[in-house]
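Q:
Got a chain?
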Amino acid sequence: MDSQKVVLITGASSGMGEQTALLLAKKGFIVYAGTRNTKNINTNNLQNLIPLKLDITNPSNIKEAINTIIKNHKKIDILINNAGYGLVSTVEDLDEKEMFDQYNINVFGLLRVCKETIPFMRVQNSGIIINISSFLGKIGLPLLTLYNSSKYAVEGITDSLRYELSDFNIRVHSIMPGFFNTDFAKKNLVTNFDTFDKNSPYANTVSKLAPVIVEQINQGNDPKEVAFIIKEIIENENFPARATIGEKAKKFLPMKKELSDEDFERRVREYYNLG
């Protein structure tokens, strides 16, 4: 069996996933970089960074990918659930496909990969699962109801799995980033046509909030910061259940703990000029 730690990262073709794959590979981990199109993976000529075709909406493909790793190494040490995207829409404008797709990637996809990975970690009596969540998994914002609630679900999954897997020496953590300067605003924000129509009854909210969110993403922290936190979680057996990283996360999450729900809502309204 390989002495090197074997890592699987979903959504590894850009942003936090890409930076994490590169960092861990440079540090000597065997890294399988999962993505739907392996041509998008930047290996930086690292032999231990291996592109892996992985569609987290396809259970048979997930099983095949995990079995490939097990066949090659007889183990999987670390799973990093990073794949995800954000739907920008009011609840009124949502259609069934948009609702399902948001949860199919951000929640069901994560669960599918966990489901296939956990049995191997359980048998080897070791493992680490790191779920990339969001500070919006603890905070609501208009137009992001589906994305927010999907990340709330990721937080609940993380909490429950920590109990469920503790007997098998499997650690489970989440990372709650704020806004980071990745391709998220360009590639991973999906907008609802009706919500962004100039005649929408929500046009005022859209005009105030949407440009600010995009700007904060584009001016956000470097995704390499998330990669370094992931490395720290892997190396520190006593790392807390979750990590908060990024300016907005560190601003709002402590505030939410300190204030009543009503006072916190007032602060968010003031900050984003929501009236």
About this structure: The first strand starts at residue 6 and ends at 9. DSSP finds nine helices and nine strands in the chain. The chain has a mean pLDDT of 93.
